[in-house]
Specification:
11 strands; globular; 4-stranded antiparallel β-sheet; 25% helix; 5-stranded mixed β-sheet; alpha+beta
């Protein structure tokens, strides 16, 4: 079962960024199972939250530029839609090592917040269907819940339909 706690700072670069911005959020910690086949689905189950409210952070390469895509764990990233939204021609998933090195986070714990190098970010428009969404707080087994509007503002995200079922 997930532990719910209100947190005002410390921890990961993501929670530090949230606290520094004065953004309200709730931190959810759960016991991560390294054998779990899907980090996002594991988080949704542990938190008792619908998978369409838990968003995964993916790093894609759009015409040679790393770009962050934030989509529901219940679906997939539409790479063509992502490329189109950012004015690119071709998108592919980024090399995992490059994603980790650039963001400062490990795969399965990449957060769109507090990244080592701020990357262009696109948030799937389905986030707007919810009062709050959950995203990685910067490590496996730790999620942060916040409003989609705050997430978009803090990451300077473009909000567009980039996910598919």
């Amino acid at each position: 079962m997930a532990k719910k706690q209100k947190k005002n700072g410390g921890g990961t670069p993501a929670t530090v960024a949230l606290a520094a911005a004065g953004t309200p959020f709730t931190l959810h910690a759960y016991e991560h199972d390294p054998a779990s086949p899907s980090y996002g689905e594991e988080a949704a189950e542990a938190l008792g939250v619908s998978p369409d409210r838990v968003f995964k952070t993916l790093v894609a390469d759009v015409d040679g530029e790393l770009t962050v895509a934030v989509v529901p764990v219940a679906g997939q990233l539409d790479l063509k839609a992502l490329a189109s939204v950012v004015g690119g021609k071709r998108a592919a998933m980024a090399d995992p090592a490059a994603a980790e090195r650039t963001t400062g986070y490990v795969r399965g714990g990449i957060s769109p917040l507090g990244q080592r190098k701020r990357l262009r970010t696109v948030l799937d428009s389905s986030a707007s269907d919810h009062a709050t969404v959950c995203i990685s707080a910067g490590r496996r087994g730790l999620e942060v819940e916040l409003s989609p509007a705050d997430l978009a503002a803090l990451t300077s995200a473009v909000v567009a339909p980039i996910g598919r079922a």
